[in-house]
């Protein structure tokens, strides 16, 4: 906690005053342009990865960057998606997977999750990904699963009524990215052969 407390003090002393005008604007305005759905993994920081300013991204983080297919009822992920699309009017949605994902590794390597029933239940949202990513062994298999999972979560995203409506009206575009932690590269898996960004 000491590190966090010192970080807050540095933010209040150095960062906030340097961006005082931006924060004053954001106090009354919330108009992010992109919904960014990423893994909860601490090594993946959407604002750092995209070099975004406060207020530019609406971020949802879940284990394995999973997006459950839409079902009626109370669901925090669905509510956040609906808010971003129907209320805030984001124009782009990115589902971003990453290398060495713990959730995808657990699935690819058939880890015993009997002692972690909530995790096992959550990871069932990647069943379609797992069924499609059958090639390779070890790290190859994990990498393939990470990519297939991003594509499967984009498909799940399109089942949400607000997203389906926005897609039909051509007011939102879906993107599937895979971030490679050691190199910093970002691959656009929804458009094979194209890089979203290359490490310099």
Structure commentary:
By secondary structure, the chain is an alpha/beta fold. The protein has helices spanning 2-18, 20-26, 46-50, 76-87, 102-108, 117-122, 127-132, 138-157, 161-168, and strands at residues 34-39, 57-62, 92-98, 173-179, 186-188, 194-197. Strands 2-1-3-4-5-6 form a 6-stranded mixed sheet, with helices on one face. The longest helix has 20 residues, at 138-157.
Give a topology summary.
Elements: H1 2-18, H2 20-26, E1 34-39, H3 46-50, E2 57-62, H4 76-87, E3 92-98, H5 102-108, H6 117-122, H7 127-132, H8 138-157, H9 161-168, E4 173-179, E5 186-188, E6 194-197
Parallel strand pairs: 1-2, 1-3, 3-4
Antiparallel strand pairs: 4-5, 5-6
Q: How would you briefly describe this protein structure?
A:
This protein has 200 residues and is an alpha/beta fold. It contains 9 helices and 6 strands.
**Helix and strand run:** HHEHEHEHHHHHEEE
Mean pLDDT: 91
Which class of secondary structure composition applies to the elements? alpha/beta
Helix content: 40-55%
* Record field, number of beta strands: 6
| Broad shape | globular
Computed over alpha carbons, the radius of gyration is 18 Å
Report the β-strand fraction as a percent range: 15-25%
Query: Which ranges are low-confidence, i.e. pLDDT below 50, for 5 or more consecutive residues?
Result: none
Cα separation of the termini: 34 Å
Largest sheet: 6 strands, mixed
Major beta sheet, strand line-up: 2-1-3-4-5-6
- So how many helices? 9
């Amino acid at each position: 906690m000491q590190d966090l407390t010192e970080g807050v003090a540095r933010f209040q002393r150095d960062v906030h005053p340097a961006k005082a005008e931006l924060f004053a604007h954001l106090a009354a305005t919330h108009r992010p342009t992109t919904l960014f759905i990423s893994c909860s993994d601490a090594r993946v920081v959407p604002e750092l990865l995209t070099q975004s300013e406060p207020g530019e991204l609406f971020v949802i983080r879940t284990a394995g960057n999973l997006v459950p297919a839409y079902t009626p009822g109370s669901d925090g992920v669905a509510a956040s998606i609906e808010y971003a699309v129907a209320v805030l009017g984001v124009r782009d949605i990115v589902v971003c997977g990453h290398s060495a994902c713990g959730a995808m590794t657990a699935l690819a390597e058939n880890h015993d999750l009997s002692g972690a029933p909530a995790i096992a239940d959550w990871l069932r949202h990647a069943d379609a990904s797992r069924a499609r990513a059958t090639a390779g062994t070890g790290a190859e298999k994990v990498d393939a699963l990470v990519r297939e999972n991003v594509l499967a979560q984009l498909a799940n995203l399109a089942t949400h009524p607000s997203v389906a409506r926005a897609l039909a009206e051509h007011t939102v575009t879906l993107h599937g990215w895979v971030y490679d932690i050691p190199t910093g590269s970002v691959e656009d898996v929804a458009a094979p052969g194209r890089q979203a960004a290359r490490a310099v």
